[in-house]
Specification:
The chain is α+β, with helices and mostly antiparallel strands and 346 residues long. 43% of the residues lie in helices and 18% in strands. The strands form 3 sheets. It has a 4-stranded antiparallel sheet. It has a 4-stranded antiparallel sheet with strand order 10-9-8-11. A hairpin with a 6-residue loop joins β4 and β5.
Amino acid sequence: MLTDNYLEQTPNRPAVFMLWPREGEPYLARTNVLQRRLKRLARMGTLRENIVRVEVWMTGSVLEAQARMYELAREHFPKRYLELLHLRMPPYVKLLLGNPFPRTAVSSQFSAGNAVVCGPFRSRASAERFEEGFLDLFQIRRCQEDLVPAAEHPGCMYGEMGRCLRPCQLVVGVGEYQGEVRRVAEFLETGGKSLVQPALAARDRFSAELDFEQASRQHERITRIEEVIKLRDELARPLDGLNGIAVLPSSEPNAVELALVRKGHWQGIYRVTFGPESLDGKLRDVIAGAEECVRVPRERQEYLAILARWFYSSWRDGEYFGVESFEDVPYRKLVNAVSRVHREVV
């Protein structure tokens, strides 16, 4: 209960809390000054007498607080938790493979069917810029219609400009078009390496052969591809390749928190405490001991929305860096990041 003794003993620190009344729904909120917030609430009419239980979870970072809020809201307010959290789904670029003539799309929802999904992006505008940029490197269709190819199909300007294989007009068949689609999928899945590496090899070969005109063309192509790759937002990756570690301040002294994302699935938050043992060894033990968690699509998408809101915000605390896989974590960089985050808190 919100007694004077309880309020005075409550720390004035960041926390997520729930107030349970005698009747009705609990009140869920987060604050940076817990004691001050509870005292303010205790002064509101008959609220003090009606509260029968107070639950508190101390938090050290905004990301930890938002993840805790999400889990509690989903448990206690299953029908309206997204509304309570004001949680919006970030946009993704998708290569939709369920059609004989696949196309791309920008959407804030995961695809229910077969697709290569890349994201999350900062905004729909940035996702569309990236989509438009990489489509200029290929010749798959940009039309949104359910394609029914026919010789008399009017086509579009991209076909006239030689930037589409024109499957609508039966210029190519399914097999040839699918070959171009595979190149697009490889580009998304490799972060552009599938185009950059062959172009680099070709440039070096032409330079060795003293064919400087062709080498110059390949160099221009490399520059163009790299400009497209830069259009991809920092967090955006093919979902199955989205691996990262967020190093966060902790609510406990002499500790930090690690939030892990593996193959686009939120793995939870793990505490690392400082002591006489090697920090490198502790980090290795924590990451190796974290069991891989595979979440259902809706839960996966909502956790990524929380991560994206934190990562792309101006109030982001802690540090985040992506990794190729958890079998190849750059532990020296991770140790340095942990030291920096802990130093900032202290």
